[in-house]
Amino acid sequence: MAEQGLSLKRDAITHRLLAWYDRHRRDLPWRARPGEVPDPYHVWLSEIMLQQTTVATVGIYYRKCIDLWPTV
What we know:
- By secondary structure, the protein is mostly helical.
- Helix content is 69%, strand content 0%.
């Protein structure tokens, strides 16, 4: 019975967290929009770039990289 209560609490927290994300998510060029499938190459490239610099700086250079090398 206690396990069922924890499951309901977890579901409520999950719902609230995802709803918060839907309202407050940052619009980043490598992120897929709701209902879209993310491009693995774009995600990978952004992850590599984000290891070395800030999100603000990556935002500037990410599009330039994609324009130069749209695929691998």
